[in-house]
Amino acid sequence: MIKTLKGLLTVAAKKDIRFYLNGIHVVCDSDGVVKLEASDGHTGMILENMQHMFNVAPDTDVILCRVSLDNAIKMFGPKATPPLSINNDGARLGEHAVTLIDGRYPDIRRALRIDSSEKCDEIGLNFEILATMCKACSLVCHDYTYKGGIFKMRDASEPLLIRRELTDGGKLIAAVMPMRL
Questions:
Q1: Residue 116 near residue 158 (C-beta atoms within 8 A)
Q2: How much is the pTM?
Q3: N or C end of the chain: which has fewer CB within 10 A?
Q4: Three-state secondary structure call for residue 176
Q5: Which of 104, 76, 61, 90 is nearest to 5 (CA)?
Q6: Sign (positive/negative) of CA torsion 48, 54, 55, 60?
Q7: What are the tens digits of pLDDT across the range 102-146?
Q8: Residue 175 CA neighbour count, 13 Å, CB half
Q9: Which of 132, 140, 136 is nearest to 4 (CA)?
Q10: From CA 77, how far away is CA 147, in angstroms rounded?
């Protein structure tokens, strides 16, 4: 779980003026489906259906502060599995409180056009950003096996999509926005 959080923090913004991007967005619907999202405005990652890993109360919608979460993570080794409990009133990683950011997280699926199915014409990518995203994906999915995966390039104005179906029923969706050449 520590590596999963580090992977999401790799994608989250650092000291962005859009304060709500400086953390991990955690949502749990009334059915118990957990979704963790991170974005820096150029890349985005959505991890769905990992309720066995995180203790998130139903109907939760919070943003975990990057700095606070990073400081709490540093208290544990890479193989540690401290409990992460999250609800609308607060979050705890083991014994450590994690600060919440008061704000409204953007709809990453809509902003990065993740559900679009347009075909590719031409696209330009910053390979340093792509390498960072690949590192984040490997951290997030360190202990999981994949049922299948898609690496999808579409129109030049659309993001590059990386989708993984996990064997436990979870999903990982990552996107890298194109750049102007």
A1: yes
A2: 0.73
A3: C
A4: strand
A5: 76
A6: negative
A7: 989 888 877 666 666 555 454 555 666 667 777 776 667 666 555
A8: 23
A9: 140
A10: 29
